[in-house]
Amino acid sequence: MKRRSLLRGIALLPTLPLLGSHASTSLAAAVGAGVTVSPLDKPHSAWRDLLSPEAYAVLFEEDTERAGSSPLNDEKRAGTYICAACYLPLFDSQHKYESGTGWPSFTQPIEGHTATKRDFKLIFPRTEYHCARCGGHQGHVFDDGPPPRGERWCNNGVALRFIPEDQPLPALRS
């Protein structure tokens, strides 16, 4: 394990009580334990030349795109939603649903491919989630989704790319 990853994991240990209880992997677990996705050791600024300004602002400055602005809201085909930065698969289209919020929403992520942390930017606590590989901000998870899980993974469309089922997934970016 790289020294930086180990130190990051140790630094997050005191925050464990603040992490959400959702099915994704917490930041501490993604960094330190046996998750199949290894975090990249790449500074956020290195992604700037690979992304649009809007995607960079959402992924690495934790901005939010305007509701209703993503073409992915209307995407109905079978396929996979991948991180717009590193191309890690995050959601399967079978878990996408229309939440009425104006952002692409899913009932669950691909196991182990997201990491969560508590966010207090709107005063009240929310559970924010990131790509477990590059750390790019994706959105927030709420407990008002449909059964059986009751989760709404509300994602910024600009932080995702959709790959139709009949196309191969692109190689992961490093």
TrEMBL record:
Pfam families: SelR. One of its GO terms (molecular function) is peptide-methionine (R)-S-oxide reductase activity. Keywords: Oxidoreductase, Signal, Zinc. Residues 44-165 form the MsrB domain. Its EC number is 1.8.4.12. Residues 1-28 form the signal peptide. It catalyses: L-methionyl-[protein] + [thioredoxin]-disulfide + H2O = L-methionyl-(R)-S-oxide-[protein] + [thioredoxin]-dithiol. It comes from the Bacteria. InterPro entries: Met_Sox_Rdtase_MsrB, Met_Sox_Rdtase_MsrB_dom, Mss4-like_sf. This is peptide-methionine (R)-S-oxide reductase. It comes from Pseudomonas zhanjiangensis. The gene is msrB.
